[in-house]
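Issue 218. Parser rejects a valid record. Input:
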Amino acid sequence: MWKVVILMAALMPVSADVLADDASQGDVLVKAKCISCHGQERLLQLTRRSPEADRAVRLDRHLKGHFAPGAEDRTRIVAWLVKATTD
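Output the parser choked on:
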């Protein structure tokens, strides 16, 4: 649990502009790499299973093993999924 707290604290200073840029770039990646197998609605349903508070951490951990396009692309995919599923 403390690892999650440290990670969240480290991510806090990241500006909204950077996250928005990651999310917009993630859109292309999600369409090319994720939706072809999962479909958009199913992908969003799967993403919403994780609580909002730790969704990004869980997605990052999952994508490393499920589909690891590299840290930068993974960050963009996670940003898009979090933005698309924020209630």
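Fixed in the parser; the record now loads. The two ends are 24 Å apart (CA to CA).
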